[in-house]
Structure formats: structure tokens, C-alpha cells
Amino acid sequence: MRSEEEVARAMDTYADLVQRLCLVRLKSREDTEDIFQTVFLKYLQHTKPFENAEHEKAWFIQVTLNACRDLPPMLVQMTAMGEATGSLEGTLEIQAEYYDNEVDTLSARALSLLEPIIICVMAVFVVLILLSIYLPMFSLYGSI
How many distinct structural domains can be found in the chain? Predict the structure, then answer.
């Protein structure tokens, strides 16, 4: 873990950069604050030293963009609408239902892609077992 002085120096140096990147990507102050905290917590836990200041700056940019990418835009927009209209609970329930359905759909699609592969692997095993049974029999018949 990094010392408080290192974190304070990094916040003085890179806070504006992280906030601007988040605001451009997310267009929401609340989400920007969440990502800001996430980025600096990752910095606090990051133990490897940086080669130079440019390497550190590149690390902050990459971690910020990755954190922004992890937050789906629809989630950000619907949450903002729920907060603006005062129906945040209902909006979050709709989002939870949507993402549950999305996970179910993706799981079913992945399973449908895996089924033919599993059948082919099982067919190879069956052929190997049949060959291990029939080859000795054919060699016995050939020697008679």
C-alpha cells in the first residue's frame, strides 16, 4: 500500500485529469465521484513502482477509462432519470430485471454454442472406446 503522502501528491496531480475523463465519458457528477474514488483506491492498493511520471499518468488514464467502460451507459442514464423524477427505486428494479434477463440470454447462447462441441468430444471418446474393443478382435481374426 502507498503512503498518505504519495496518495495526496497523486490526487493533487491527477484529480482534475480523472474527473475530466469521467465527466466526458459518463456525463454524470455522481458517477464521476464513484469512479474517482475507485481509481484512487486502486492507486492506494497498487504496489508496483512506476518508471516515471509519464508511466504513472498513463496508468491513471487507463484505469479511469477501464472503470468508465465497466459502467454501462444505459445504467448511468436510467439512474439519472430515476433520480431526476424521484422514482429511483422503480428504475433500479427495472434495471435489475433487464440485466437478469440479459444474463439469462447470454448464458443460454453460450450453452447452445457449447452443446455441439460437447457432442463432438463425446463422439471422439466413443470412437476411441470402440476401436480399443474391436482392434484386438480384428487382430485375433486376422491371425486365425
Answer: 2
Per-residue pLDDT of the chain (144 residues; tens, 9 = 90+): 888 899 899 999 999 999 999 988 888 888 899 899 999 999 999 989 999 999 999 999 999 998 888 777 777 778 778 878 888 888 889 988 988 999 999 999 999 999 999 999 999 999 999 999 999 888 888 877
* Cβ atoms of 59 and 50 closer than 8 Å: yes
For cell 487382430, the residue is 139
Burial class (CB in 10 A: 0-12, 13-18, 19+), 92: middle
**At residue 105, what is the residue type?**
T
CB 22 within 8 A of CB 35: yes
Residues 55 and 95 in one domain: no
For Cα atoms 100, 27, 4, give the angle at the middle one, nearest 5 degrees: 95
User: DSSP state, 48?
Assistant: S
- Residue for cell digits 466526458? 24
Q: Residue 123's domain spans which residues?
A: 88-144
The pTM score is: 0.58
